[in-house]
C-alpha cells in the first residue's frame, strides 16, 4: 500500500467505525436487516389515549430547546411541568422565561448527565421534548418510552443503524410515540408542494432533491457550550451526510415513503474535506484545539437513494463551503417540477407558460394551493416565529393530535428511515461508494400502510 493509499484506507476505516460498522462490510450489510428481531405490534397510525391537557417536560434547553420552551408556552392545552439541562445557566434562563410570563414554576433537574432519569421517574409527565447533542438522542428517547412517556426528539433521531432499531423496538414494545421533530415538513412551501403533489399537479413522481447546505463553520468558535462545542467533533468522526433529515423529510412525505414506497438502497460520495482545517488555520491561533483536529467529513457529500418503486432522490450535505443556504426541495414528476431556493415551477399542463421557462411568481401558486393547515394557522405561526413559523406549526400539530386522539404526522419509522441515511452514507463513502441496503424499519408494513391524510387542520 502506498503512503497515500494507506492514509486513505485508515481514514476510511475510521469513518466506517464511526458509521457503526463493527467488523467489516459484509456483517454490516447483514445487520441492516433485522427481520428476526423481537418486536411488538407496529406503531404505524398509533393513537395515544386523548389527553385533555398535555403535560410536557424538556431535556436540553440550549439554543434549540429554549426556543421550544417558549413556543410550547404559547400553545393552549400544553403545560410545562419539568425541565432538565446539565448547564445551569440555560436551565435558569428557561425557568425565568416561564416565571416572567406568569406560568407556574417547573421542576428543575440537571446536576449530572443522568439527572434526566430522575425527571422521567415522575408520574405527571405525558411527553418529553429532547433537544440535546446527537449522542444523547437514542438513550434519552429509549428511557423516555420505557418510563411510559411519549418521546419527541430533535433531528437526527439517532446516529447508528443499531440505535435506530433499538428505538423502533422500544416504540413497538411500549406502544409509545417516538416522533423525530422534522420541522421543515411544516414550512409553508413544503406544505403547499405536498398539497400539489396530492392533487396530482406534477403527475407521477420520479425524482427528488434534498439538501442541508448551510455554512456553519462559525460554530467552531463555540468551544465550551452551544452547538459547535459538540457538533464540530462529528466532522472528525464521520465522512458522509451528518444531517440528512431537513431536506429529506418533505421529499419523503411527497413520495409516501413508508406508506406505499420505501427507501431501498443508497450510494454516496464525498468531496475532499478542506474547508474546516483552512477555517481553523485562518481563525484560530496555531495551538488552538480547533487546529489539532483531523477533519475527515468531506465538505460536500452527495448521496443517491433508490426507492423500491424505482424513484431516485439526491441528498446533499455541506455545512462548510461559502455559498447560500439551500435545502433544494425539488420534486420532479411526469408533468413537471417544483424547485426551491429560490422557489420556481415548470409544468407541461396546468402551468402559466412553457415548461421550458421557470415560473417564479409564487403568489399565484400560494393563492391556488396554500395548504389548509397554513391557511388556518399560518398567520399565528409566523407571529410566533421559529424558522418562518414551521416550528410553531409543528408544536401546534403535536399538541392538537395528542388532545384530539389523532395519529401524529411523523412516526418512529420516518425518523429512523430519514436519519439512517447518515451512518449508511458514511459506510458507502468508506467503500468506494458501494451501494448499501437501507433497512425496512416498518418490517413490511409500508406495503399496506395508508398514506398520511394530508396533514389536517
Ligand atoms: N430542527 C431544527 O431546525 C434544529 C435547529 C437547531 C438544532 N437542532 C437540533 O437540536 C439539538 C440541540 O442542538 P442545540 O443547537 O440546541 O445544541 P446546544 O448545545 O445549544 O444545546 C444542547 C443542550 O443539551 C444540554 N445537555 C447535554 N447533555 C445533557 C444531559 N445529559 N442531560 C441534560 N442536558 C444535557 C446542554 O447543556 C445544552 O444546553 C440537536 O440535536 C440539533 O441537531 C435542530
From TrEMBL:
<dbReference type="Pfam" id="PF10518">
    <property type="entry name" value="TAT_signal"/>
</dbReference>
<feature type="domain" description="Glycosyl hydrolase 109 C-terminal">
    <location>
        <begin position="191"/>
        <end position="360"/>
    </location>
</feature>
<dbReference type="InterPro" id="IPR049303">
    <property type="entry name" value="Glyco_hydro_109_C"/>
</dbReference>
<keyword id="KW-0520">NAD</keyword>
<dbReference type="InterPro" id="IPR036291">
    <property type="entry name" value="NAD(P)-bd_dom_sf"/>
</dbReference>
<dbReference type="InterPro" id="IPR019546">
    <property type="entry name" value="TAT_signal_bac_arc"/>
</dbReference>
<feature type="domain" description="Gfo/Idh/MocA-like oxidoreductase N-terminal">
    <location>
        <begin position="54"/>
        <end position="180"/>
    </location>
</feature>
<keyword id="KW-0732">Signal</keyword>
<keyword id="KW-0378">Hydrolase</keyword>
<protein>
    <submittedName>
        <fullName>Alpha-N-acetylgalactosaminidase</fullName>
    </submittedName>
</protein>
<dbReference type="InterPro" id="IPR050463">
    <property type="entry name" value="Gfo/Idh/MocA_oxidrdct_glycsds"/>
</dbReference>
<dbReference type="GO" id="GO:0016798">
    <property type="term" value="F:hydrolase activity, acting on glycosyl bonds"/>
</dbReference>
<dbReference type="Pfam" id="PF01408">
    <property type="entry name" value="GFO_IDH_MocA"/>
</dbReference>
<dbReference type="InterPro" id="IPR006311">
    <property type="entry name" value="TAT_signal"/>
</dbReference>
<dbReference type="InterPro" id="IPR000683">
    <property type="entry name" value="Gfo/Idh/MocA-like_OxRdtase_N"/>
</dbReference>
<dbReference type="Pfam" id="PF21252">
    <property type="entry name" value="Glyco_hydro_109_C"/>
</dbReference>
<dbReference type="GO" id="GO:0000166">
    <property type="term" value="F:nucleotide binding"/>
</dbReference>
<comment type="similarity">
    <text>Belongs to the Gfo/Idh/MocA family. Glycosyl hydrolase 109 subfamily.</text>
</comment>
<keyword id="KW-0326">Glycosidase</keyword>
